[in-house]
Amino acid sequence: MTINLIAFASPLQKKSSLTNSHEAILNELEKYYTVNLVDHTEMETLGADDFKVVFVASGGVENIVVRHFEQLPRPAILLADGMQNSLAAAMEVSTWLRQRGMKSEILHGELPTISRRMRILYNNFRAARTLNGQRVGVIGTPSPWLVASGVDYLLAKRRWGVEYVDIPLEQVYERYHRLADADVGPACAAVVSQAMACREGTPDDMVKSMKLYRAIRQVCEEERLEAVTLSCFKMVEDLGVTGCLALSLLNDDGIPAGCEGDLQSIFTLMVARALVGREGFMANPAMVNTRANELVLAHCTTGLKLTEKYIIRDHFETGKGIAIQGILPTEDVTLLKCGGESLDEFYLATGTLTENTNYINLCRTQVRIKLDSPVEYFLKTPLGNHHIVLRGNHVEELNEFLQANACKRVEYLP
C-alpha cells in the first residue's frame, strides 16, 4: 500500500524543514505503508489509480490549496498533525471545500488512530477503483417477478462506473451447442467426487450443467465481463438446463454470478468482493420469525467454496437439472443488499448462522440466521427480494464504504 502525500507548505518552509517538523507522523505511517511525499506542484505526475492524501504541512496554505481545487483528490482527505499551524489551515480548507459540495475529512489526533483510519480510507479507494469500469453481463432479461429490483444503467455508470451489458441468451446457446460431452467429463467427475451425496439429477444433467458453465465462461472472456446475472428460468425452458451449477462455479472462479437477472443483487455481490474479498450466498428470505428475531434464507445454488460440504440435488421449482444444497458453517455472518435504481440504498446487518435447515418445500441451500438487529425490516422496509449472506462480520467496512459513496442505509427502527 502506497500513500501519496501531496504536500502543501508555506513557501517560506524548506523541504528539509518540512520532514523534520512532521517526523512523528511520517515515521508512524512508514511503519505500515510506503509513503511518497509529493510537492503540490507535481500532482499531475500521479494517476487515477494512485491513492492521494492532501498533506497540510503548515499554516498560510489555504489560498494555494484553493487554487488547485480541480486537481484535488475526491473525496479530499486532509492530513494535519497540528505542527506549524497545520490543523487551523486544514479546518479552513475543509470548510471551503464542503461549502462547494466536496466531501472532506481531516485526519488528526493520536498517531495509531490516524494510521488505522488511513487503512480504511485506502480500502474504500481501492474498492471504488476496482468497481469503476467493471462490465456486468446481463444474460437474457431479468425475471418478470423482480418488479422492484431494476437498475438504471446510465445512473449506475455515473455513480459507480459500472457498465451493465445486455447479452442475448443465444450467444450462450451457440457456445453451449458447440461443446461435446467429452469436453467436460473430467470436470463433472471432480464435482461429483467431492459431493457428500447425489440425491437427484442424472449424469446427463451434470454434463449439460457443466457445458453451460463452460459456455458462460467463454462469453465472459469474449465480452470482458467481470460479473454476470443470468435469466435462468428462461434457460430451463429453452435448453432444459438449470443455471445453478454454472453460477456456483463462476462464483468459485471469482466471477460474481447471480440468479434471475437480478441487477441489484449482482452489484451487491460485486461490492462485497471488491471491498472485503468475500463471495456471497444470494438467497430469498423464506421464513421470518419476529419472536425469535430470526429468518430462513434459501436458494438452489451457492458457491462450493462457501460450503463445508454439499449435496447434488435437482432444481426445486422445476424438478429438473442440477442444483446445489450447500452446508454452510455455523458462524457470524453479514447480510447485505444494495438497492435503488441508481444503487444508492443499502441494507446491512450482522447475525449468526445457527442452522442449515432442510425443509422439503424450499430451495435447496437453506440457512437459519439469528439477527442482531430487528428482523421486522424484512416485513416492513425490505429492499426487494434477494439478499446476500457473507461469512464473517464486515459491517464496519461496508457501512463506511457505502455511506462514503452517498448511499442511504435502510433499516427498521421500532
Model description:
This protein has 414 residues and is an alpha/beta fold. It folds into 2 domains: 2-131, Rossmann fold, CATH 3.40.50.10940; 135-409, L-fucose Isomerase, Chain A, domain 2. The protein is built from 14 helices and 19 strands. It has helices at 15-21, 23-32, 62-67, 86-99, 111-131, 153-160, 169-178, 181-193, 203-223, 232-239, 244-252, 263-276, 377-380, 395-404, and strands at residues 2-8, 34-39, 52-56, 76-79, 104-107, 135-139, 163-167, 197-198, 227-230, 257-258, 281-289, 294-299, 309-313, 323-327, 332-339, 345-355, 365-371, 387-391, 408-409. A 6-stranded antiparallel barrel has the order 11-12-17-16-15-18. Strands 2-1-3-4-5 form a 5-stranded parallel β-sheet, with helices on both faces. The radius of gyration is 25 Å and the shape is elongated.
List its salient traits.
alpha/beta, 19 strands, 14 helices, L-fucose Isomerase, Chain A, domain 2, single chain, 414 residues, five-stranded parallel beta sheet, six-stranded antiparallel barrel, Rossmann fold
Gap between N and C termini:
42 Å
CATH topology of the largest domain: L-fucose Isomerase, Chain A, domain 2
Tell me the β content.
Answer: 15-25%
Order of adjacent strands in the largest pleated sheet: 11-12-17-16-15-18
Give the biggest sheet. 6 strands, antiparallel, barrel
Task: Flag low-confidence runs.
Answer: none
Question: How many strand units?
Answer: 19
**C-alpha Rg (nearest Å):** 25 Å
The appropriate CATH architecture of the largest domain is 3-Layer(aba) Sandwich
Number of helices: 14
Number of domains: 2
**Mean pLDDT, nearest integer?**
94
Report the helical percentage: 25-40%
Q: For this structure, what is the CATH class of the largest domain? A: Alpha Beta
| Helical/strand content category | alpha/beta
- Sum up the overall morphology in one term: elongated
The CATH homologous superfamily of the largest domain is called: L-fucose Isomerase, Chain A, domain 2
